[in-house]
């Protein structure tokens, strides 16, 4: 069968209109179609099939289908006899079979295959979840055991270090061991954080805090690292926020410190910049943007892709587990914030933490009748001006000098309204000179309650007489503090008795060494098990009990119950544990413990608790 | 190098004196192929003719896959430098031992059957003779049938391995293998096996373990080649670089699974899932890097590819043809020999599309 001339012309026109095609291309298609009808050469059909496959466009496929149906319907009508009609019908069936029926069958097959794929994936997911749960449990247990051992190692190392008996190489070995233990402690901490994050055990702990004070703590945290890199400088551009905010300060700090420490680690020279900008949102919150940039080694595109994945450093040549950034990223999410990164390999990186935070519903600082005297020779930026205005708004009388001589003259001659705070922003030589001046001023009774502050002090030299030294800026709430309060210490010591119950000898050993070093008057009794502890408790009155939770025989909770059953009023009982999971902390609270002391032992935290108990005992 | 791809009805289209003819024929058409050889011999008395039986042929004409059985015997006529190639017929069930003549070769391997020696022999060619570009296919449709054959100048051989060596001073081969699967899930260890049969996986009845994961395994499912294994032996570091291996059959009486290749105890397997159609195309287009001019290609497609991809196979071959724009010839094989990267280590796989491009040295590849 062959197409007639008028049929060819009609089909060309139809194709031109349907597919917006030029005459030559349309003619070419019609010629191929004619060839199919004339010689039964199926190339046309397969070409058509390929076009549909190649385009992958639903509309195009529909257009082709319409065109085929229309064309065959037209040819069928035009057919001169039954034989021609039969030929057209056969051709249509063949074309329809290859182009559409085959495709439908293929889709059906795909559907069948996808059922098997689904089953495989379901099975895999189930097994993966089970494995993850087991692994999390395993990691938690291992971390617990590691923390217990680290407690002993850390403690003994600190004690040896404090004794200061090692010399030369031996001292270096001790430093290296201390450093290695610190790294190990951070690692265990990171692994625990990840496990807590993954298992949804991470708690959000909200409180009121000053943003500037939080950033000072972050900067303090990396100060030592920065000191080791003399060619590296920290720049700050921190907007002054004249109110406290309400949020999870510790976790925000953890994110910022993580990024800052990484920046220091991977930047040898140039600068690290920390900036904070805020914007008030419509719902009364503030939207804060912390930006930390550096001029360090930067990251390749591949590294950037995996920077927030757990264990990302396994995929690079860098040292460490690479959990820090993953934790920071997850924490940001948990705080409903967003941590993003931009980096150029060889040039540096920019990390941005965007977070919304509530404005604290509390009173501002009460600075009525506070006299503040400031010498500022070099820094009059907007933030500084905002801080001064804020201090004045809160009732403080602020006197600012930019001339050293006038400032010194004022301090030497002042009789009334003696400043409660003297804040100095000076040059290197200036600070040394003022240190000597403060030495003199402190001998005068009128300055006995004055707090002397060195601000923007980026020199790595010690100042002896300043009360407060800040590398970049002082926290605003400093001006609400009293000197007496600042120096408050428990000078009048009282003797108290503590009972510590722990099955691990080293833990008791460490505890004993730490306590006796700081408080030689304290009586510390040690029990190596639950029953022994209860026995001791029955015959002596204690001011505080420290109780290990995980012990063979009677565990800490059981011992606590038995102590309660003894009837006499219980002194504060603190849980002593390496298991800092929320479930455990909740259980500790539920049982009525006074608090929890973490292993590895953090002496400062322990001392704070003891001081409080001494204070209560004293009163 | 002159070349032409024709069917057995087109001998009159050859306008040069060929040195080597490579042909493929379906098992059932072996006799016909021998008849046509006589015609060829009359036309070109000095020509070398080699052939390999196939499950079905892959030809240079649309739709490329011989759906209408129009291309039952197909040929690649080649005019080559006589010093540029060598043919070796070897026993496929023995370790081969070829003297190193100090020259560098690329090679096409055509084997009438699958045997464990084949893996060793490929390794030997790779490591001992330094043949890095090694591509080919295994004839036949099962590893128990003896119907598959190799043809060489009028004679038909079973249990034979034909090695077509191309001297790198004159010719070279470039190529690679792709498949459309991804390893998934946990690895399973073969704990009891014999030849190509796995009786136990992780010390459990193999079929039970498999069906726990994928559900009831019907013959229809097996024949659709939809759940091949990735088979990791000591030679491979990861499953991604391990060969894909199809399931050939199951036996409910002894709870075993038979594969298209041999396994041994302590081999690891992982199930596979198909990649998306987008990823399939992406993988297919890795062949485009082999673009060359004045060359001809061999395609070795697994019979599993034909069963699994269905109509998509010819669409993929059409796509390949349009992008590479070179003639090709090949067959559906029981197993393919090729590497995942051009010049990478060649291994035996199932369910791959494997391509080898022959060009004269100096041509773009």
Describe the structure.
The complex is a heterodimer of chains A (619) and B (365). By secondary structure, chain A is α/β, with parallel strands linked by helices. Chain A folds into 5 domains: 5-108, no CATH class; 145-198; 208-359, Histidine kinase-like ATPase, C-terminal domain (Heat Shock Protein 90, 2-Layer Sandwich); 371-486, Response regulator (Rossmann fold, 3-Layer(aba) Sandwich), CATH 3.40.50; 497-618, Rossmann fold. Chain A contains 19 helices and 17 strands. In chain A, the strands form 3 sheets. In chain A, strands 1, 2, 3, 4, 5, 6 and 7 form a 7-stranded mixed sheet that branches. In chain A, strands 9-8-10-11-12 form a 5-stranded parallel sheet, sandwiched between helices. Chain A has a 5-stranded parallel sheet with strand order 14-13-15-16-17, sandwiched between helices. In chain A, β4 and β5 form a beta hairpin. In chain A, α5 packs across α15 (505-518), α7 (211-227) runs parallel beside α8 (249-265) and α8 packs antiparallel against α10 (324-334). Chain A is elongated. Chain A starts with a helix and ends with a helix. The model of chain A is unreliable at 485-492 (pLDDT under 50). By secondary structure, chain B is α+β, with helices and mostly antiparallel strands. Chain B folds into 2 domains: 2-178 and 279-360, no CATH class; 182-274, no CATH class. Chain B has 7 helices and 25 strands. Chain B has helices at residues 30-43, 116-127, 206-214, 219-223, 277-284, 303-309, 311-324, and strands spanning 2-7, 20-26, 48-54, 57-58, 73-79, 85-91, 105-111, 134-138, 150-152, 155-157, 160-167, 171-178, 181-194, 197-201, 204-205, 229-232, 244-245, 247-251, 256-259, 268-274, 295-302, 328-333, 335-338, 347-349, 353-360. In chain B, a hairpin with a 2-residue loop joins β13 (181-194) and β14 (197-201). The two termini of chain B are 15 Å apart. At the A-B interface, α3 and α5 of A face β13, α3, β20 and α7 of B.
């Amino acid at each position: 069968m062959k197409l007639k001339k008028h049929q060819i012309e009609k089909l060309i026109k139809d194709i031109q209109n349907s597919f917006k095609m030029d005459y030559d291309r349309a003619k070419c298609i019609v010629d191929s179609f004619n060839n199919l009808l004339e010689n039964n050469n199926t190339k046309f059909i397969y070409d058509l099939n390929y076009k549909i496959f190649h385009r992958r466009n639903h509309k195009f496929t529909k257009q082709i289908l319409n065109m085929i149906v229309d064309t065959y319907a037209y040819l069928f009508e035009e057919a001169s006899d039954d034989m021609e009609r039969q030929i057209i019908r056969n051709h249509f069936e063949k074309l329809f079979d290859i182009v559409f029926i085959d495709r439908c069958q293929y889709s059906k097959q795909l559907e069948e295959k996808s059922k098997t794929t689904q089953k495989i994936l379901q099975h895999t997911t189930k097994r993966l979840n089970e494995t993850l749960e087991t692994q999390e449990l395993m990691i938690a247990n291992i971390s617990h055991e590691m923390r217990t051992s680290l407690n002993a190692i850390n403690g003994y190392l600190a004690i040896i270090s404090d004794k200061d008996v090692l010399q030369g190489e031996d001292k270096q070995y001790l430093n290296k061991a201390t450093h290695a233990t610190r790294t190990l402690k951070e690692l265990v901490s990171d692994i625990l954080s990840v496990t807590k994050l993954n298992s949804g055990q991470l708690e959000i702990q909200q409180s009121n805090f000053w943003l500037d004070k939080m950033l000072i703590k972050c900067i303090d945290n990396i100060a030592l690292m920065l000191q080791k890199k003399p060619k590296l400088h920290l720049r700050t551009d921190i907007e002054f926020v004249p109110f406290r905010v309400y949020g999870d300060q510790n976790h925000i700090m953890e994110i910022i410190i993580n990024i800052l420490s990484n920046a220091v680690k991977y930047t040898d020279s140039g600068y690290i910049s920390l900036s904070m900008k805020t914007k008030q949102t419509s719902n009364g919150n503030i939207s804060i943007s912390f930006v930390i940039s550096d001029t360090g080694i930067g990251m390749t595109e591949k590294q950037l892709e995996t920077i927030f994945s757990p264990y990302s450093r396994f995929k690079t040549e860098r040292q460490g587990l690479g959990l820090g950034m993953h934790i920071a990223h997850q924490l940001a999410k948990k705080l409903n914030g967003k941590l993003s990164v931009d980096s150029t390999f060889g040039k540096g990186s920019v990390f941005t933490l965007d977070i919304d935070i509530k404005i604290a519903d509390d009173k501002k600082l009460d600075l009525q009748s506070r006299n503040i005297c400031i010498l500022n020779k070099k820094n009059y930026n907007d933030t500084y001006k905002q801080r001064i205005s804020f201090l004045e708004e809160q009732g403080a009388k602020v006197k600012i000098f930019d001339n050293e001589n006038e400032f010194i003259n004022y301090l030497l001659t002042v009789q009334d309204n003696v400043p409660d705070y003297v804040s100095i922003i000076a040059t290197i030589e200036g600070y040394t000179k003022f240190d000597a001046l403060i030495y003199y001023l402190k001998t005068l009774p009128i300055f006995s309650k004055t707090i002397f502050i060195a601000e923007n002090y980026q020199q790595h030299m010690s100042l002896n007489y300043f009360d407060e030294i800040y590398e970049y800026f002082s926290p605003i709430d400093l001006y609400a503090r009293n000197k007496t309060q600042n120096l408050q210490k428990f000078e009048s010591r009282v003797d108290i008795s503590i009972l510590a119950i722990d099955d691990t000898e080293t833990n008791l050993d460490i505890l004993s060494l730490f306590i006796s070093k700081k408080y030689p008057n304290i009586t510390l009794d040690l029990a190596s098990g639950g029953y022994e502890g209860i026995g001791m408790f029955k015959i002596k009155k204690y001011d505080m009990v420290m109780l290990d939770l995980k012990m063979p025989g009677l565990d800490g909770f059981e011992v606590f119950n038995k102590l309660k059953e003894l009837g006499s009023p219980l002194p504060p009982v603190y849980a002593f544990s390496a298991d800092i999971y929320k479930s455990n902390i909740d259980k500790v609270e539920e049982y009525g413990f006074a608090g929890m002391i973490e292993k590895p032992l953090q002496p400062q935290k322990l001392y704070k608790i003891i001081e409080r108990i001494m204070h209560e005992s004293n009163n | 190098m002159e070349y032409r791809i024709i069917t057995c009805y087109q001998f009159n289209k050859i306008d040069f004196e060929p040195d080597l003819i490579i042909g493929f024929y379906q098992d059932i058409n072996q006799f016909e192929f021998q008849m046509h050889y006589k015609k060829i011999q009359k036309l070109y008395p000095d020509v070398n003719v080699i052939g390999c039986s196939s499950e079905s042929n892959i030809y240079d004409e649309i739709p490329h896959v011989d759906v209408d059985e129009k291309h039952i015997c197909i040929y690649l006529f080649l005019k080559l430098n006589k010093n540029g190639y060598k043919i070796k017929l070897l026993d496929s069930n023995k370790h081969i031992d070829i003297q190193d003549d100090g020259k560098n070769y690329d090679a096409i391997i055509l084997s009438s059957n699958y045997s464990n020696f084949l893996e060793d022999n490929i390794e030997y060619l790779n490591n001992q003779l330094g043949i890095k570009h090694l591509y080919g296919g295994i004839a036949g449709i099962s590893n128990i049938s003896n119907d598959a054959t190799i043809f060489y100048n009028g004679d038909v051989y079973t249990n034979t391995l034909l090695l077509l060596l191309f001297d790198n001073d004159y010719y070279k081969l470039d190529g690679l293998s792709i498949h459309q699967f991804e390893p998934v899930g946990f690895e399973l260890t073969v704990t009891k096996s014999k030849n190509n049969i796995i009786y136990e996986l992780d010390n459990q009845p193999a079929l039970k373990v498999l069906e726990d994961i994928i559900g009831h395994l019907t013959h229809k499912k097996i024949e659709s080649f939809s759940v091949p294994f990735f088979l990791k032996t000591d030679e491979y570091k990861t499953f991604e670089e391990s060969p894909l291996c199809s399931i050939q059959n199951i036996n409910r009486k002894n709870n075993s699974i038979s594969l298209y290749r041999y396994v041994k105890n302590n081999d690891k397997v992982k199930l596979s899932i198909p990649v998306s159609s987008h990823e399939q195309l992406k993988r297919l287009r890795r062949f485009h890097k082999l673009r060359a001019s004045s060359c001809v290609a061999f395609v070795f497609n697994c019979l599993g590819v034909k069963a699994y991809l269905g109509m998509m196979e010819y669409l993929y071959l059409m796509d390949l043809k349009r992008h590479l724009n070179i003639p090709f010839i090949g067959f559906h094989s029981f197993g393919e020999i090729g590497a995942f990267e051009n010049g990478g280590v060649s291994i035996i796989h199932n369910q791959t599309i494997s391509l080898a491009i022959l060009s004269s040295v100096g041509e773009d590849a």
